[in-house]
UniProtKB/TrEMBL annotation:
<keyword id="KW-0479">Metal-binding</keyword>
<dbReference type="GO" id="GO:0046872">
    <property type="term" value="F:metal ion binding"/>
</dbReference>
<dbReference type="GO" id="GO:0004325">
    <property type="term" value="F:ferrochelatase activity"/>
</dbReference>
<feature type="binding site" description="axial binding residue">
    <location>
        <position position="13"/>
    </location>
    <ligand>
        <name>Fe-coproporphyrin III</name>
    </ligand>
</feature>
<keyword id="KW-0627">Porphyrin biosynthesis</keyword>
<feature type="binding site">
    <location>
        <begin position="46"/>
        <end position="47"/>
    </location>
    <ligand>
        <name>Fe-coproporphyrin III</name>
    </ligand>
</feature>
<keyword id="KW-0408">Iron</keyword>
<feature type="binding site">
    <location>
        <position position="264"/>
    </location>
    <ligand>
        <name>Fe(2+)</name>
    </ligand>
</feature>
<comment type="pathway">
    <text>Porphyrin-containing compound metabolism; protoheme biosynthesis.</text>
</comment>
<dbReference type="InterPro" id="IPR033659">
    <property type="entry name" value="Ferrochelatase_N"/>
</dbReference>
<feature type="binding site">
    <location>
        <position position="54"/>
    </location>
    <ligand>
        <name>Fe-coproporphyrin III</name>
    </ligand>
</feature>
<dbReference type="InterPro" id="IPR033644">
    <property type="entry name" value="Ferrochelatase_C"/>
</dbReference>
<keyword id="KW-0963">Cytoplasm</keyword>
<comment type="similarity">
    <text>Belongs to the ferrochelatase family.</text>
</comment>
<dbReference type="InterPro" id="IPR001015">
    <property type="entry name" value="Ferrochelatase"/>
</dbReference>
<feature type="binding site">
    <location>
        <position position="184"/>
    </location>
    <ligand>
        <name>Fe(2+)</name>
    </ligand>
</feature>
<feature type="binding site">
    <location>
        <position position="30"/>
    </location>
    <ligand>
        <name>Fe-coproporphyrin III</name>
    </ligand>
</feature>
Length: 311
């Protein structure tokens, strides 16, 4: 008897795979409006600063392979096929849904490589997938994991990585080292919509620090867009300045809203925030990204299997 086939639509942000793709990528993010030459140059220089391009595509591929393997380990009774769809790069979500239809996938679960739900983040991925499903006539049913920000294995994985970062400080100093949980900022107008995003970041931070018994923590924001409207704050650079003004000499940053090494982690924290901390004489330690760590993949796979039961 053949196993039931379940497609997994794993959605990610995407990144250019060559220098030539930076312009179309940036244009797509800007909804078809090409960036100004100075904006394009600045983004290109940021990629150059982290080695030329972001490793996001390679990490996303490794995560997809690991997720498929882990799903089969956790539930050998079904045949899981993981497909990757990108928001701003090939293969786009629509292209991936089209491929799933061509492969005969009738039942699918969608999950975004981001733990926290917002109408302006995960909500837009789901919208893209649903529009593609209607256009291509399938899969007949896709149910979505909307968030997995307090999934116990995700908390375990994050707690271990935060503890490893704190272990870089002398034992007697650790309690005084603040841990800042950061996520990608969004326009402040989400607060008027009752969006759960800021609350979910807080809930992750609370669960992680409760697990390791570290009471000195708070949340911050990073990578805000450059638009006239206000974005969620305080920005991580302002947090570092404020902590320095209060006499803090060491800080740990956990970019918990991101699940892989890419531009917003490797440039915004590892270069920009680190440079500011160095200038102020502060020691900054960044918590390692989960990437394709087995425990992290078990967390996502478990969230997918729980959604399958609901779906």
């Amino acid at each position: 008897m053949s196993k039931k086939v379940i497609g997994i639509l794993a959605m990610a942000y995407g990144t250019p795979s060559s220098v030539e793709e930076i312009l179309p990528y940036y244009t797509h993010i800007r909804r078809g409006r090409p960036p100004e030459p100075q904006q394009l140059q600045e983004l290109t220089e940021r990629y150059e600063a982290i080695g030329g391009l972001s490793p996001l595509n390679e990490i996303t591929a490794a995560q997809a392979q690991g997720l498929e393997r882990t799903l089969h380990e956790l539930n050998p009774a079904a045949d899981y096929r993981v497909y990757t769809g990108m928001k701003h790069a090939h293969p786009f979500i629509e292209e991936t849904v089209q491929q799933m239809v061509a492969d005969g996938i009738e039942e699918a679960i969608g999950v975004v490589w981001a733990p926290h739900y917002s109408t302006m983040s995960i909500g837009t991925y789901i919208k893209s997938a649903e529009e593609a499903r209607e256009k291509w006539g399938g899969p007949q049913a896709i149910s979505y994991v909307e968030s997995w920000h307090v999934q116990p294995l995700f908390i375990d994985s994050t707690a271990k990585r935060v503890a490893a970062a704190l272990a870089q400080f002398p034992a007697e100093e650790r309690a005084s080292v603040p841990v800042v949980f950061t996520a990608h900022s969004l326009p402040e107008r989400i607060l008027q919509l009752g969006d759960p995003y800021p609350r979910q970041i807080e809930e992750t931070g609370a669960a992680v620090t409760a697990q390791i018994g570290h009471n000195n923590w708070f949340t911050g924001w990073q990578s805000a867009g450059r638009t006239p409207e206000p974005w969620l704050g305080p920005d991580i650079l302002d947090v570092i300045r404020e902590q320095h003004a209060q006499g803090v000499t060491s800080i740990v940053i956990c970019p918990v809203g991101f699940v892989s090494d890419h531009l917003e982690v490797q440039y915004d924290i590892d270069i920009e925030a680190k440079q500011l901390a160095d200038e102020l004489g502060m020691k900054l330690v960044r918590v390692a990204s989960p990437n394709d760590e087995p425990l992290f993949l078990q967390a996502v796979a478990t969230a997918v299997l729980e959604q399958a039961k609901k779906g």
